[in-house]
């Protein structure tokens, strides 16, 4: 490519090394959240029956629980199916979208650092744009991680079999409902952790990118040779 000068030296500098960490952490962020699937279950024993039935609801990203049926209709003489409560797709999709965008930006920035660092540092526009985008991503990571952390807390509450039993009328009658178990959500906890780690990384990276801009080190004015006094000559 024209103007490309391959140099892996920036990867040893904070500006490049931190970008690699951001790239890796972004992968873990959207993989642990977007790839999750789990289930929750209830045991239901109708009042006119001696046998209990196990009902299982499978849920996954983007966690629109209100579209997931846990008890089908015609169970214990009920006329309609019972669904889980809550829609947590907005916070989950927002978090994954920021992770994917950060992943793509890290790739573009690494290509710029490795192949076009001489162009990047030759003018002020490149470092300034990089700094502004880095600050924006740090803020978006904070917002999305906080939103997804709250969404995950509500998701755990809504999929807890004990809370489901309290919320449905079928179990408040003479029918007997008991928890049947729920999947662990360790990977979702990890996604929130990586979200806030990304906040720290992008804030730290913002400082090193800021040092590349003219705001941190203004360019030195060039002296006009005509205005430079000649050195004194010895008599």
Automatic annotation (TrEMBL):
InterPro entries cross-referenced by the UniProt entry: Marvel, Synaptophysin/porin
Protein name: MARVEL domain-containing protein
Domain MARVEL, chain residue ranges per copy: 10-214
Keyword NADP annotated: no
GO cellular component term, pick one: synaptic vesicle membrane
Membrane-crossing residue ranges in chain numbering: 20-38, 94-116, 128-148, 188-210
Subcellular location(s) per record: Membrane
Main location: membrane
Membrane topology: Multi-pass membrane protein
Origin species: Chiloscyllium punctatum
Domain of life: Eukaryota
PROSITE patterns tied to this protein: MARVEL
Key words, A-Z: Glycoprotein, Membrane, Transmembrane, Transmembrane helix
Family statement drawn from the similarity comment of this UniProt entry: Belongs to the synaptophysin/synaptobrevin family.
